[in-house]
C-alpha cells in the first residue's frame, strides 16, 4: 500500500519539479496494483515488454469496468492513439503516407530550413532584452508554427485551438478516480476543436494544398480512405500532440542545460553533441511521463504477479528510462552515452508518430538558444510547472542573459 | 563512413529513413535498405539517424554491437582464471571471425591475435549483396563492415588455411606457412553450392552469389539488360535475387524443386504466401520442377535451360541459388568432427573431436558451427544466419578467454530476416521444428501477419511478414515453452489461417558424404573415425 501513497504523491503538483525520487520508490515494486484497480508498471524491462505485448490494448472499450462518462478517445473520435490493430495500423498508415517514408520520405527533413528560420526569428525577437520567458517566446511558438504549417492549419487561429488543446492536455492523466469529470471537460474542448477542424477539412477538400490535412481528405488507396470523422480525429491528435509535447522537450532541455553550464560551453564548440544531448533529454527529462490508457486483454503474468484481463494499465515511461537495472548512473545527465535506449517516445506500434519532427525541433531550438544567448542564467530554480503530471514541463522558464548574439551564418 | 544495421534487432520503426532519407530508404512498411558506405557529406544525417534508432540497431564507423548500457564485466576485475596472453588464431575473416577478434580485445585479451582470411578484403556484409548492390542503389564496393574497433591483430588475407594439426597446435596455410596457436577459432563459414555440371557452370551468364566478386559480376550481368533471368532455387537468396530483378524491371523465371518458395525454411503454408507475392510481382514461378540442364550457344554463352517437366526457359543469365556448402575440407584428418554438417561443438562453442569429446582449445562459430540447442531438445543445428554469426562469435570469443566458471552458453534463439518484394520477413525459433501453424495476428490476405509454429503442443517458432515489432513477444513465448496454439486474447485476432499442419518438409540427413566408423572394444581403446565420400 505504500506504493499507492507514492503514486498519489507523484500526481500531486508539489512533486512536479522532481518526481524522480518517487519513481525510484515506485520501482521497488515493478508492477503493482493501485487501490482503484489500476496497474502501474515502472521498470524498463517490464515496460518494454508490455509495449510489445499484443495482449495490451490501447482501446479503453476493453476495460472490464468503464467509469461512467468515459469516452473511447479523448482526442475526439477514433484516432490511432486509442485504437488497436488492424484499425490502428490502417489509420496510422494513411497518416504516415503524407508525413514519412516510404511515400513522403523527405518531408520532415525538408522542414529543416523553415524550422531554422522560425527559430532565428523568434530569438531575434529577444534582442534588446535581458530577460525572457523561453516558454512563451521560443519553446511554444516554434512547434506550433511548424505543426500548423505541416498540417495546413492557419497560424493566426492559434489562440483559439491553444485553449482547447490545453484543456485536453490537462485532462490527460493516470488514475481512474476522477476520470469521469476529466473526460467531460475534455469532451467539451474536443467538440469545439472538432467543429473547427471539420470546417478546415471541408475547405481543404474543395481546394487541396500540399499540407497533411489535404492529403488526409483527398487520398484514396487500396485500403480505402479516411472517413470524415477519422480525418478530424487524426488531425486533432496531430495538432494537439504536435505542439503540447515539443514545448516540454525544448523547455526541459534549456532548464537541464542551464543546470549544467559546462555542457553549454561544449555545445557551442561541438555541434554534433546536440544530437545525443537531445536523446539524453528524452531519457532524462522526457516530455511525456505516462502512458495511461492501456488495458490488459488477457491475464498477463509479469514480474512475479499477474495483471488481470480487463484491468487498466499505466506505464511510467519516465521511470523506466531512469531504471538503474537498464542504464548506469541513471540520474546523471550524460550526453556522451552510447547506445542509449530510452522510452522518451514510447515504443511498439504506438511509438510517437512525430518523433522525427520533435527531434529536429529540439535540436535546432536548443542549439540556437545555446549559441545565441550570451551568459544565460536561470531566474528561478525550479521554475513553475504546468499542472499535468503526464505531459510534464515548466509553465514558464525565465532566463536572464547579457545579450543576444546575431544569428550564425 | 561505414554503416551497418543490425537487422536482427531492427523493428522497422523507420526513424533512420526520416532523418537520413538519402542513406536509408523504406521498401514497403518495414523493410529498410541502405548504403553501407555513405558519402562523408551525409555524416550529420547518419549520426542523427543512429542516435534516433529506437532499438539502437544502427552502427556507424564502430561496430560494438553492444545493446546494454550497464557496465560490461571485463577481465582483470578479479574474476580469476582468465586468459589474457598467449596466441589466438582466428581462421576466417568474415562476419563471425571479424566480430570475434573485436570481442577478444574488448574482453581484455592482450596477447597476440592473428586472423587468417581466404578473401583479400577486410570483412564486409553479405546481406546487401542480394539486394541494394544488385539493384545498383549503392556502389558495388559499398559493403564493408564498420570495424569493431581498431583491433590490434595481424591480418593474413588471401591465404586460406589448408590444414589443422591438433597435436602440434598449428594451422597450415595455402602458401605452406605454419602458424602455431594456443587457442584457435574456426570460422570459415560456407561457400555457394555450385551448379553440379562443371561445363554448364562455366557458361558465360551462369552465376552464384556469395562473395563481393559474385555480386559485382551478377550486377554487371543484370545491368546489361538480359531478356530473361533464370533463378535456380527458391530459398531466401534465390527469392531476393528474383526480387532485385523485378525491381530492375527484368523478366525473371524462378525454378524451385519444392511446392513453393521458402518451403525448406518456413514450410508449405508460408511458402505458398511467399509464392503468391512473387507471382503478384511478375515472377514466372515454376514449382515442383528442377533444371535438368543449361545450354550454351556456340560462343559459350548461356542460351536456355531445360526443365524436368520438358519445358525450356530462354535466359541469358542464370543464378544458381541452391544453398551453401560448408568450408570444412581443410579440417579433414584434423581429428575434429567436421563434415558436410559443419564442425560439431558444444553449446559453449568448443569443438568436438571425432570421438565426440570436447576439445579445450579449439572453438567454432558462425555458419560452420553445429551446436546442440537446449531449447530445441538439444538437437544439433547449424544456422546460416547473420544474427547467429554475431551472437555465436561473441560467445566463442568470450569463452576463449574465460575459465570454466565464467563460460557462457550460446542460448540465443535463432532469428533471421529477409526483405523481398517490399516485404520484411523475420523469424524467431526453428520453423522447421513444427507440426502445426496458426496465424495469430494480422491477415494473410493483407500480407501483414504473425504466424506461430507449434510442435507437440509447444510454440517453437514465429514468422512475421511486416510485423517485426511483435517478434520479441513470441520469442519470450518460445523461451517459456508456451502452449500451442496460443490460448489468450490479443489485438488483431483474425485467425484466417489455422491452426493446421505447418507442412514442414521431412528433414534430409546432413551426414551424406561422410560416414562414421567405430572401432575397438575396451573403453580406453574405442574410437570413432570419419570416412569421407564426395562432398
Description:
Chain A: This is Cytochrome P450. Chain A: Keywords: Heme, Iron, Metal-binding, Monooxygenase, Oxidoreductase. Chain A: It comes from Nonomuraea rhodomycinica. The complex is a heterodimer of chains A (409) and B (535). Chain A is of the alpha+beta class and 409 residues long. Chain A has a single domain (68-288, 330-404), classed as Orthogonal Bundle (Cytochrome p450), CATH 1.10.630.10. Chain A contains 17 helices and twelve strands. Chain A has helices spanning 2-11, 20-27, 44-51, 87-96, 107-110, 112-124, 134-139, 141-151, 158-171, 179-206, 212-218, 228-244, 246-258, 261-269, 273-284, 317-320, 355-372, and strands at 31-33, 39-41, 56-57, 131-133, 291-296, 300-302, 305-307, 312-315, 373-374, 377-378, 398-400, 403-404. In chain A, the strands form four sheets. In chain A, strands 1-2-8-5-3 form a five-stranded mixed beta sheet, with helices on one face. Chain A has a three-stranded antiparallel beta sheet with strand order 4-11-10. A two-stranded antiparallel sheet of chain A has the order 6-7. In chain A, strand 1 (31-33) and strand 2 (39-41) form a beta hairpin. In chain A, helix 6 packs parallel to helix 17. Chain A is globular. With 535 residues, chain B is an alpha/beta fold. Chain B has four domains: 3-60, Alpha-Beta Plaits (2-Layer Sandwich), CATH 3.30.70.20; 87-191 and 326-406, FAD/NAD(P)-binding domain (3-Layer(bba) Sandwich), CATH 3.50.50; 198-322, FAD/NAD(P)-binding domain (3-Layer(bba) Sandwich), CATH 3.50.50; 422-501, Enolase-like, domain 1, CATH 3.30.390. Helices cover 18% and strands 30% of the residues of chain B. Chain B contains nine helices and 35 strands. Chain B has a six-stranded mixed beta sheet, with helices on one face. A six-stranded antiparallel beta sheet of chain B has the order 28-29-32-31-30-33. In chain B, helix 3 packs parallel to helix 8 (386-400). Chain B is globular and about 60 Å long. Chain B starts with a strand and ends with a strand. The relative contact order of chain B is 0.12. Chains A and B meet through strand 3, helix 15 and helix 17 of A and helix 1, strand 2, helix 2, strand 30 and helix 9 of B.
Amino acid at each position: 500500500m505504500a506504493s499507492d501513497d507514492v503514486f498519489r504523491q507523484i500526481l500531486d503538483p508539489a512533486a512536479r519539479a522532481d518526481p524522480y525520487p518517487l519513481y525510484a520508490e515506485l520501482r521497488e515494486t515493478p508492477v503493482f496494483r493501485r487501490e482503484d484497480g489500476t496497474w502501474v508498471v515502472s521498470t524498463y524491462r517490464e515496460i518494454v515488454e508490455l509495449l510489445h505485448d499484443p495482449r495490451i490494448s490501447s482501446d479503453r472499450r476493453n476495460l472490464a469496468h468503464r467509469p461512467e462518462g468515459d469516452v473511447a478517445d479523448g482526442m475526439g473520435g477514433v484516432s490511432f492513439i486509442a485504437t488497436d490493430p488492424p484499425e490502428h495500423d490502417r489509420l496510422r498508415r494513411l497518416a504516415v503516407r503524407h508525413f514519412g517514408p516510404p511515400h513522403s520520405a523527405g518531408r520532415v527533413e525538408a522542414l529543416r530550413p523553415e524550422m531554422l528560420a522560425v527559430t532565428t526569428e523568434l530569438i531575434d525577437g529577444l534582442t534588446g532584452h535581458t530577460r525572457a520567458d523561453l516558454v512563451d517566446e521560443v519553446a511554444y511558438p516554434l512547434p506550433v508554427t511548424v505543426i500548423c504549417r505541416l498540417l495546413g492549419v492557419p497560424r493566426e487561429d492559434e489562440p483559439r485551438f491553444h485553449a482547447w488543446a490545453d484543456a485536453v492536455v490537462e485532462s490527460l492523466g493516470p488514475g481512474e478516480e476522477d476520470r469521469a469529470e476529466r473526460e467531460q471537460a475534455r469532451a467539451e474542448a474536443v467538440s469545439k476543436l472538432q467543429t473547427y477542424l471539420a470546417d478546415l477539412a471541408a475547405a481543404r477538400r474543395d481546394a487541396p494544398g500540399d499540407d497533411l490535412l489535404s492529403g488526409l481528405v483527398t487520398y484514396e488507396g487500396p485500403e480505402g480512405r479516411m472517413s470524415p470523422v477519422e480525418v478530424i480525429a487524426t488531425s486533432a491528435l496531430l495538432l494537439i500532440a504536435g505542439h503540447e509535447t515539443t514545448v516540454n522537450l525544448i523547455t526541459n532541455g534549456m532548464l537541464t542545460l542551464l543546470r549544467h553550464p559546462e555542457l553549454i560551453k561544449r555545445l557551442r564548440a561541438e555541434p554534433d553533441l546536440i544530437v545525443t544531448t537531445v536523446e539524453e533529454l528524452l531519457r532524462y527529462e522526457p516530455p511525456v511521463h505516462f502512458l495511461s490508457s492501456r488495458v490488459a486483454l488477457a491475464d498477463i503474468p509479469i514480474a512475479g504477479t499477474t495483471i488481470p484481463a480487463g484491468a487498466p494499465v499505466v506505464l511510467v515511461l519516465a521511470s523506466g528510462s531512469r531504471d538503474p537495472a537498464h542504464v548506469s548512473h541513471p540520474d546523471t545527465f550524460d550526453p556522451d552515452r552510447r547506445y542509449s535506449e530510452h522510452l522518451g517516445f514510447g515504443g511498439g506500434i504506438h511509438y510517437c508518430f512525430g518523433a522525427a519532427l520533435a527531434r529536429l525541433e529540439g535540436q535546432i531550438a536548443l542549439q540556437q538558444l545555446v549559441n545565441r544567448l550570451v551568459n544565460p542564467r536561470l531566474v528561478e530554480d525550479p521554475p513553475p510547472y504546468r499542472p499535468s503530471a503526464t505531459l510534464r514541463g515548466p509553465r514558464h522558464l525565465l532566463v536572464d542573459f547579457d545579450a543576444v548574439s546575431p544569428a550564425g551564418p | 563512413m561505414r554503416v551497418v544495421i543490425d537487422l536482427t534487432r531492427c523493428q522497422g520503426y523507420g526513424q533512420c529513413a526520416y532523418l537520413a532519407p538519402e542513406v536509408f530508404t523504406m521498401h514497403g512498411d518495414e523493410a529498410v535498405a541502405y548504403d553501407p558506405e555513405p558519402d562523408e557529406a551525409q555524416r550529420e544525417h547518419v549520426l542523427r539517424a543512429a542516435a534516433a534508432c529506437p532499438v539502437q540497431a544502427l552502427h556507424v564507423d564502430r561496430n560494438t554491437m553492444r545493446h546494454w548500457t550497464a557496465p560490461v564485466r571485463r577481465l582483470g576485475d578479479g574474476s580469476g582464471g582468465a586468459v589474457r596472453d598467449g596466441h589466438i588464431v582466428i581462421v576466417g575473416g568474415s562476419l563471425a571471425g571479424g566480430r570475434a577478434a573485436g570481442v577478444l580485445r574488448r574482453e581484455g585479451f592482450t596477447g597476440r591475435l592473428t586472423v587468417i582470411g581466404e578473401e583479400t578484403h577486410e570483412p564486409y556484409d553479405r546481406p546487401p549483396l542480394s539486394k541494394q548492390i544488385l539493384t545498383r542503389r549503392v556502389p558495388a564496393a559499398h559493403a564493408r563492415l564498420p570495424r569493431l574497433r581498431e583491433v590490434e591483430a595481424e591480418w593474413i588475407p588471401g591465404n586460406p588455411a589448408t590444414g589443422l594439426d591438433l597435436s602440434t597446435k598449428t594451422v597450415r596455410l595455402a602458401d605452406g606457412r605454419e602458424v602455431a596457436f594456443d587457442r584457435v577459432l574456426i570460422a570459415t563459414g560456407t561457400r555457394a553450392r555450385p551448379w553440379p555440371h562443371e561445363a554448364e557452370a562455366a557458361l558465360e551468364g551462369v552465376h552464384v552469389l556469395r562473395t563481393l566478386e559474385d555480386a559485382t559480376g551478377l550486377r554487371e550481368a543484370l545491368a546489361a539488360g538480359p531478356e530473361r533471368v533464370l533463378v535456380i532455387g527458391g530459398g531466401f537468396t534465390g527469392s531476393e535475387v528474383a526480387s532485385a530483378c523485378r525491381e530492375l524491371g527484368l523478366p525473371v523465371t524462378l525454378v524451385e524443386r519444392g511446392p513453393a518458395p521458402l518451403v525448406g525454411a518456413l514450410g508449405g503454408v508460408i511458402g505458398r504466401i511467399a509464392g503468391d507475392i512473387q507471382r503478384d510481382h511478375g515472377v514466372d514461378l515454376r514449382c515442383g520442377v528442377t533444371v535438368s540442364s543449361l545450354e550454351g550457344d556456340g560462343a559459350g554463352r548461356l542460351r536456355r535451360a531445360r526443365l524436368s517437366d520438358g519445358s525450356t526457359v530462354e535466359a541469358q543469365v542464370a543464378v544458381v541459388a541452391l544453398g551453401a556448402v560448408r568450408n570444412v575440407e581443410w579440417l579433414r584428418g584434423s581429428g575434429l568432427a567436421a563434415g558436410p554438417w559443419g564442425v560439431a561443438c558444444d553449446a559453449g562453442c568448443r569443438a568436438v573431436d571425432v570421438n565426440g569429446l570436447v576439445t579445450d582449445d579449439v572453438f567454432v562459430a558462425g555458419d560452420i558451427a553445429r551446436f546442440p540447442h537446449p531449447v530445441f531438445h538439444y538437437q544439433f543445428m547449424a544456422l546460416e544466419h547473420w544474427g547467429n554469426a554475431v551472437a555465436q562469435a561473441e560467445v566463442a570469443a568470450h569463452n576463449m578467454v574465460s575459465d570454466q566458471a565464467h563460460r557462457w552458453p550460446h542460448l540465443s534463439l535463432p532469428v533471421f530476416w529477409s526483405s523481398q518484394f517490399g516485404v520484411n520477413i523475420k523469424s524467431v525459433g526453428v520453423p522447421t521444428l513444427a507440426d502445426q501453424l496458426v496465424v495469430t495476428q494480422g491477415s494473410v490476405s493483407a500480407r501483414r501477419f504473425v504466424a506461430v509454429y507449434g510442435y507437440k503442443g509447444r510454440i517453437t517458432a514465429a514468422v512475421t511478414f511486416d510485423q517485426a515489432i511483435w517478434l520479441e513477444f513470441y520469442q519470450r513465448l518460445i523461451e517459456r515453452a508456451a502452449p500451442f496454439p496460443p490460448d489468450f486474447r490479443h489485438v488483431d485476432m483474425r485467425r484466417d489461417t489455422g491452426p493446421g499442419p505447418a507442412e514442414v518438409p521431412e528433414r534430409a540427413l546432413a551426414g551424406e558424404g561422410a560416414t562414421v566408423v567405430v572401432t575397438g572394444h575396451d573403453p580406453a581403446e574405442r574410437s570413432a573415425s570419419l570416412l569421407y565420400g564426395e562432398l
